[in-house]
Design goal:
The protein has 279 residues and is an alpha/beta fold. 17% of the residues lie in helices and 50% in strands. Residues 35-48 and 116-123 have low confidence and may be disordered.
Length: 279
């Protein structure tokens, strides 16, 4: 009886292994066919996909005071220009960019048309939105999901820049109040005129190059370094520095007592895991 029972168990195990092999083989064949078919489709679309084309180009002559941008897949560059304009260039015809102006507010949004499977490495759709701004704005709000965000020479009363999985770079320009948020990526500012600034990051470095002195500053980082490099020595500021896990280095004898003048402008630097360097 025991032999018969063992034979039945062996037979069942053999059937299970054969079934598992067949299912695995079938899935491999199906995936192979899918990849081949996508490759054939991409080869047919080479004229579009391998050669970047312009999918949107507009110039606006209206009075624009505010800008709202929500980019799901595109890199976004915003810079000073002679007029309000937008140009979107990419290699994926499934990416669509909408741009409208209403009540002095310019709204820009990108999205993918339909549901398409992308077999490219890291699902990387290449699209780049470039925006030019000629005058000072009341407000600008930009959110990117996976595309990098670069802003240069923009003037605004208030600005809010957000990114999920990309880098944020802000160069020059002037803001009364600048706020940035990033989930995973670096935040970098360079030679930006500011009255007040708030920089928040979950995972990535926060780098402030040629920082203008005596600016109300709040910086928080969960995982990454904070680098603060002043363009000129502060004259009326005080520092509150908190670091849970990492080194704090103040490489400026002028700031070694963490207070300059009457200390009117508060600079708060908070880090959970990473170094803080001040120069």
């Amino acid at each position: 009886m025991e032999c018969i029972h063992c034979e039945r168990k062996c037979s069942s195990l053999k059937k299970f292994l054969i079934t598992l092999f067949i299912v695995g083989f079938a899935m491999t064949v199906i995936c192979g066919i899918g990849i081949y078919a996508q490759g054939e489709k991409l080869s047919k679309d080479n004229q579009y996909n391998e050669k970047v084309t312009t999918n949107l180009s507009k110039i606006y002559k209206q009075d624009i005071q505010s800008i709202d941008i929500n980019a799901e897949v595109s890199d976004v560059t915003i810079k000073k220009g002679s007029h309000f304009s937008i140009k979107s260039r990419g290699d994926d015809k499934n990416i669509k960019v909408d741009s409208t102006v209403k009540n002095k507010t310019w709204t820009i949004k990108d999205h993918t048309k339909g549901s398409h499977i992308n077999f490219r490495p890291q699902n990387n759709d290449e699209n780049h939105i470039t925006i030019t701004v000629p005058t000072q704005l009341d407000r600008i709000t930009v959110k990117t999901d996976v595309g990098d965000l670069k802003i240069s020479d923009i003037k605004a009363q208030s600005a809010e820049y957000k990114a999920d999985y990309s880098d944020i770079l802000v160069k020059r320009g002037h803001y009364h109040h600048l706020t940035t948020y990033n989930d995973s990526g670096d935040i970098e500012t360079e030679d930006v005129g500011l009255k007040k600034v708030n920089l928040y990051n979950d995972s990535g470095d926060i780098i402030m190059k040629d920082m203008h002195p005596d600016v109300l500053t709040q910086v928080k980082n969960d995982s990454g370094d904070i680098d603060l490099n002043y363009k000129h020595d502060p004259k009326n500021s005080r520092f509150e520095i908190h670091n849970d896990s990492g080194d704090t280095n103040i490489d400026n004898q002028f700031l070694k007592h963490k207070k300059v003048g009457k200390g009117k402008n508060l600079i708060q630097l908070n880090n959970d895991s990473g170094d803080i360097d001040i120069k």
